[in-house]
Amino acid sequence: MIAPDKFRLSSLVGLIGLSACTWVPTGPTVPVLPGTGKSLDQLRADDAVCQPYALTQAGGTPPAQTSAYDTQRRYDLSYIQCMYAKGHRVPVLGPMTVRPAQAPPPSPDPPR
Length: 112
Fold this sequence. Notes:
Blueprint: H1 4-19, H2 40-58, H3 68-85
Helix pairs in contact: 2-3
């Protein structure tokens, strides 16, 4: 049987080992462009607000024990939502749709 002090110490060592595996996003991995009528300075100011917001939404510092991919995905989605809410152009997730080509207008009837 493990002594209580040794059990606490081994649990602490295990937790420290797990926390070393955490990963914190360093920034968004999606492009964002200034919205219509927005300046680059406005984009930068909003970016300074949205990055901490996205980090909090992704799980904080350090994030909960999740994969780096999941953490970055949550960060990016929160960042996109924040920047969109501030009026900037953000990537749209999902398949692209293409409009079918329009038929040319009918030619006028020839004169009689």
